[in-house]
Amino acid sequence: MWVGRIFSIRYKFFLVTALLLTLAILVYLYLAVYLFNADKSAYVYDSNAAIVGSLADQLTAEFDSDVKLLRLIGKTYVESKKRDASSSEEAMNAIKSLFQESEQFVAIELYEKTEEAAPNVTAGFRVVLRLQKAEELRPYGLDETFFAKLREKRALPFDTIRKAQVYFQNDSVAGNMPLLTVATTLDSKNIEAGNFVFVAELNQERRINSFNSSAVYTTYLIDRWGNLLVHSDMKKLFEENAKIESRAIQDIVTSKVVAGAKEFDGNDGIKRIVAYKKLPIGHLIAISEIPTEKAFLASKKLIEKSILFAVLILSFSFVVSLLSTKQLTSALYRLYLATLKVSEGDFTVQVEARTRDEVGALALSFNKMTKEIIRLIKETADKARMEKELETAQLVQDNFFPTTELKFGSFELAAFFKSATECGGDWWGHFDLGKKIVILVGDATGHGVPAALITAAAHSCSMTIEKIASVVPSAFRSPAAVMDYLNSAVYHAGRGKVKMTFFTAFIDKQSGEVTYCNASHEMPMIIKNIGQSGEERGQGATSTSAATVDVMDEGKGKLDPCLGEGLDVRFTEHAYQLASGDMVLWYTDGLIENRNKEGAEYSEKRLVRFLKGIGHLSAREAREALLRELEVFFGKLEDDSEETSGNTGFDDDITFLLLKKA
Question: Cα–Cα distance between 167 and 284 in angstroms, integer?
């Protein structure tokens, strides 16, 4: 080669050494920066999410307290109107006392609905009471006419307030104090809820201090229209149209996800990492953001310092290579070979550090790097293995559940199950005892793997009971005998730490008599059909009740302890007679306690109202109608009337069985 013809062996070795060392350092820098950026990215996202999460929780608590106090003041005023003059005076003194004791309120205004047309009437409401703290206004150069003038310029949307029940509005005016308006009504259960609107003005200057907890993150609060309510930069609140209109914020406002963090390109061309959390009050959204460049400033400095460090090493190595080529060459050659093994996927390679100079330090750093890579690969493999095991557990648990539809005697059964996570804590089953059919419904405490193990124990126990009963019919003649056997299995499986509510029912196929034991489970509901007014509607509860709903509570509210609480527990039997046309609903608490995206529970009251309209349907038709009802309330269940499992976003599993007697 031309290098060999031009340069001496000394300089050839020098060039080769420089090339190999440069290559090794570049590989090291690439891997080090890559790992640092990955770790830094996780830290930035977690830190941003933690800041906005803490801020959202704080604001939720503060706003909830403000709304409760405002409603208390409003309720006191409304009730005082119904009393005599002396009581009204006492109520007014109480209102003034509550107002003065509140550190948040600067002023309050009470509005009453009226049909009058007068100068002080706005959108059908007139102000009937206005209180304000003069000592809060003076530092800003404001007098007691400020709020009256403010309302003339910025009218409140009373229709929106009455619909939302809690409404927030930024009423900050340039040159004055930063104000946040909170408006609410009486509780929707109150018959006069729509006749009054209560408004409080809050000085935001105190709250803004909590938004300035970080020097690098910008935090602010918006409503569902993107209007700015609180900002770490107070000047933003005084702008004429204090509204965030970036595409990133629009995506967050329209998203159904309660909390999250992602990177966005801002309207100003600057990339930002934005974290948000939606508050469960007033449709508010807390947001924290940081420019991506600022977030990864440490990474940029790391690269600069790493490059500088590499240059120093190279310069030093060039000098040393000219003076001591043999030792340096052999060390770099070993490092070079190690980098080749790394590039081939062998991360177990280690380089022996024979010296304590820069090359030795480089070898130690390389060894540390490969060990870190091996650790990360192992963690990734462990995570994949755990996910695979969960999938297998899910498949196994799916086999615990019988068919979703069956008929026996004059009865028809239709069932549904949906797990909140990969492995659920709900379980139901049945087995035949000749003249009687046995229905089993249980709900283990919690969900996930521990709860799934308890359901496995219950399932295995029920299969054993069925097998024994087929050989020795007298072994399990009553629900109490079955419950004793199940209690022993659950207790030993959970060691008394994981329990299970349970309901066991023996149903006579001919007479319809139900003998049952209840271990702290939800009582079944009995739908007694008294008409056919629901047929024309077909898909859900009717506006006119076609059935009555009763509770199978022959124990008068006395429930036995959960399965697994102890081996000495005894279970009480009760009896209930089903009539022709009756339908029984067994369910777990997940059906009524899960919440939709607005944070509302489905509730037992809503369930009873729905059941009154499906008494004329068959069990299968009733199940399909109830599934459509749940989809309207919760959103798409992604189910075609078959048992499914997996992470659904629900807090608890959903299980229900519908039994119809012909």
Answer: 9
**End-to-end CA gap in the chain:** 98
Same domain, 319 and 289: no
**Whether the predicted pLDDT of 254 surpasses 70:** yes
> Three-state secondary structure along 81-109?
CCCCHHHHHHHHHHHHHHHHHCCCEEEEE
Query: Is residue 446 in some structural domain?
Result: yes
Q: Is a pLDDT exceeding 60 seen at residue 87? A: yes
Number of domains in the chain: 3
Do the beta carbons of residue 442 and residue 427 sit within 8 Å? yes
Tokens, residue 95: 């209102």
135-141 long-range contacts, Cβ below 8 Å, gap at least 24?
Answer: 136/106, 136/177, 136/203, 137/106, 137/177, 139/177, 140/176, 140/177, 141/176
Taking residues 88-96, report their average pLDDT.
Answer: 86
Cα dihedral 599/604/609/612 (nearest 10): 140
Give CA–CA dist 615/529, Å, rounded.
5
Residue 441 and residue 657 in contact, taking contact as beta carbons nearer than 8 Å: yes
Same domain, 494 and 390: no
> Which of 70-74, 275-279, 395-399, 599-603 is predicted least confidently?
395-399
Cα–Cα distances (Å) from 370 to 337, 347, 351, 373, in that order, read 14, 5, 10, 5
When pLDDT is cut at 50, 70 and 90, the band that residue 629 belongs to is very high
**At how many degrees (to 10) do helices 9-80 and 204-211 cross?**
150
DSSP labels for 406-474? EEETTEEEEEEEE-SSSS-SEEEEEEE-SSEEEEEEEEESS-SHHHHHHHHHHHHHHHHHHHHHHH-GG
For 495, phi then psi, to 5°, come to 55, 30
Paired tokens of 225: 């229209």
User: Within a domain: residue 252?
Assistant: yes
Phi and psi, residue 616, nearest 5°: -85, -10
Chain centre distance of CA 426: 20
Q: Which two tokens stand for residue 65?
A: 């307290």
Distance CA 161, CA 198 (A): 10
**Cα angle value 57/60/61 (rounded, 5°):** 90
Other Cβ atoms within 10 Å of 543 Cβ, number: 8
Amino acid identity, position 259: A
Q: State the residue range of the domain holding 360.
A: 2-37+300-394
Shared domain check, 95 and 28: no
- Which of the listed residues 262, 295, 328 is the one where a domain comes to its end? 295
CB neighbours of residue 369 within 10 Å: 17
> Rounded to an integer, what distance in angstroms lies between the CA atom of residue 273 and that of residue 297?
13
Residues 6+ apart with CB under 8 A from 1: none
* Same domain assignment for residues 365 and 306: yes
Q: What CATH number corresponds to the domain at position 518?
A: 3.60.40.10
Which pair of structure tokens corresponds to residue 514? 């139900």
Helix residue ranges, H only, 472-517: 479-494
Q: What is the mean pLDDT of the chain?
A: 81
Rg (CA), the chain: 35
User: Mapping DSSP to helix (H, G, I), strand (E, B) and coil, where does residue 641 land?
Assistant: coil
